[in-house]
Amino acid sequence: xxxTSLAAADGGLPPAAAAHADPAAEPFATAPSRAARLLxxxxxxxxxxxxxxxxxxxxxxxxxxxxxxxxxxxxxxxAPPSAAHWFGTxxxxxxxxxxxxxxxxxxxxxAPLATLVATVAGTTLGLLTGYVGGWLDSLIGRLIEVLLAxxxxxxxxxxxxxxxxxxxxxxxxxxxxxxxxIARTVRSAVLSERSxxxxxxxxxxxxxxxxxxxxxxxxxxxxxxxxxxxxRLGYAIFxxxxxxxxxxxxxxxxADWGLAISENYGMMTGGYWWTVSFAAAATAxxxxxxxxxxxxxxxxxx
Length: 302
Known about the structure:
By secondary structure, the protein is mainly α. The protein is about 75% helix and about 0% strand. Helix 5 (about 40-65) crosses helix 7 (about 105-130).
């Protein structure tokens, strides 16, 4: 029960008006209108189409590709794009079109999970520092500032060198380095909510801190969390591709796009542009698609 519902119980507001004015109910009450605005957003719709295309490839790619993406053909290496191989073949004769389609799966398995880890951890830290404050805010705030002062890609490389590259390690590392960024955003949103009447009413009722943070405040700070999550997803995709290119991300024989660029970029000097260009274009299109979705979400929720 929030401050407005308490007022309704005392006769200060009619129940219908109190429910309408309830801050905790507002995100859910406006959800249909926000969804309608998203569907009318050109940037969101274009981005959603791009992202859904690659999601389809990640899920069903192995079933629809014309060639075995992992099968080599040493008699047909570095063949240019043709009717038989739409995107050509790489230096060991693998069909590049099939590998680009299948390559959506590893990056769309790792990047969203890493973003989810960062969102959960960052939201929890942001709620704690924003609501509890005091020495806890100072301690966690200083740790966040230290992490943000370091080049994030360098931190990721150091951890991966120490622990060894694997999909689970990449998920954990990216999740950790993005956590401070999300925590800072959530903390700012919580600080603006902490002094509102519904929080004071919950405290007067004797509700515990966890209840107030996750039941009372969290629903009201979901919009900035959603915006931050979509933005971080784009960065996570780029980071996964970058780590794979450097040899510390997804490992062979995966068809991951960053790994494909790493394995074939030396061929560019010989004129074999197709060995790298299509994987690079796929990575760029997915990042652009996610960023367009993020722009649409930000325009609606902010």
